[in-house]
User: What shape does this take?
Amino acid sequence: MAITFHFDEISKPTFFKTTELKSWLKTIAAKEKFSIKELNYIFMSDEALLKINIEYLNHDTYTDIITFDNSDASTGSAGKIESDIFISLERVEANAATFNTTFENELHRVLAHGLLHLCGYKDKTKKDAALMRQKEEESLTML
Assistant: This one.
């Protein structure tokens, strides 16, 4: 089980507790009956994530998170998460202000959000989005 956090081009927030967060993310996955084989969180600027959004998803919009599921169920690894999750810390911080919460809380919500997508939760319909929010809140209470 490998979870890594990459802050190559951007400073790691002072509140970021790597060991605690890795344990928390493993707990979320286990609660959803998944295990983590390899999970990479890559933190970057708005502009860097916008480039990824345009290049890979053909979306010319800013976003806080993009999740790429690299799992391959055809190889017998069903239920084992392999993913790269790209997060704009600038967008997360802006969203924290918009949603009247702390940067720390919003970043934790986004970390859980990406993992929950990998566990099969969607957020495109109102019903799916409501369930995703519920799962995010449950995850935050476990931290």
In short: The chain has one domain: 2-142. The two ends are 19 Å apart (CA to CA).
